[in-house]
Design a protein that fits this description.
mainly alpha; Zinc Finger, Delta Prime, domain 3; 52% helix; 0% strand; elongated
């Protein structure tokens, strides 16, 4: 069983210590005494937290907003903010600015205001809505699980002297291979191959496939022209060219490179 599955299955298991805010009500909406992990609405906080995560993952804004509000008003704001910070890396596409928004909303709710009073609850709702409106993706957990499985497959194949059922995307990863450009002056292998500034400037500093903007490209041309290495026109042009979208690691050789 993968780590993610076991973590989610044990989350909220019997015996886990409950921590409700001391300012929270002792009775639920119906006037009945609340159990240790019961929300004001009479729900189990672990179930509400799980619902919040699924709502974020499925982009259901209304359910996400309600689940966040329910946790915040019930004295479980600490649980809410802890989980939301996990959701932005577990259930959203990388690069979403919402990660910074969640932190800001938490700061407002917990440091400037009280987390279960109305302003704190608004922060909880806003944070949940921001997460639900962001681009959902399980790319982080999926990548982590695949890389772990590939590592195990490689180790098993090494032990049995067979081909692995799965491998890392870089394969053997050695000089002369597909990712040869990585072995520049900043690595021991590259230094031993004599790959200095000429190799790095020509091959290792390229970007793409969007390429450099005009100003950055101009600076690079000037830097290479003023360098103590005598770069050829072809090398300068190549250094500025964006990498190929379909062959991002393809690099020509220049016979005069040291």
């Amino acid at each position: 069983m993968g780590d993610d599955e076991s973590r989610q299955m044990t989350f909220g298991a019997d015996g886990e210590i409950s921590e409700r805010s001391p300012d929270a009500d002792d009775t639920n909406d119906f006037g009945d005494p609340k159990a240790a992990d019961e929300t004001d609405g009479g729900y189990n906080r672990y179930a509400v937290s799980s619902l919040l995560q699924k709502a974020v993952r499925r982009s259901d804004e209304e359910v996400a907003a309600w689940a966040a509000w329910e946790l915040a008003r019930s004295g479980f704001a600490w649980n809410l903010w802890e989980r939301l910070h996990l959701y932005v890396v577990e259930d959203l596409r990388a690069g979403q600015d919402v990660a910074l928004l969640v932190e800001r909303y938490e700061t407002l709710a917990t440091e400037r205001w009280e987390p279960n009073e109305w302003r704190g609850r608004l922060c909880a709702i806003h944070a949940a809505l921001a997460c639900a409106r962001a681009t959902s993706s399980r790319e982080g957990p999926n990548a982590d699980e695949f890389f772990r499985n590939a590592a195990a497959a490689r180790a098993e194949a090494d032990e049995t002297d067979t081909e692995p059922a799965a491998d890392f995307p870089v394969g053997e990863f050695e000089p002369g291979g597909e990712y040869d450009v990585a072995f520049d002056k900043h690595t021991g292998e590259g230094s031993r191959l004599g790959r200095g500034a000429e190799f790095f400037k020509t091959h290792g500093a390229r970007v793409g496939p969007e390429g450099e903007d005009d100003l950055s490209a101009r600076w690079q041309r000037l830097n290479m022209a003023l360098h103590d290495v005598d770069f050829s026109g072809a090398q300068i042009a190549h250094a500025i060219d964006p990498v190929d979208e379909d062959e991002q690691w393809a690099e020509p050789s220049f016979d005069d490179e040291g």
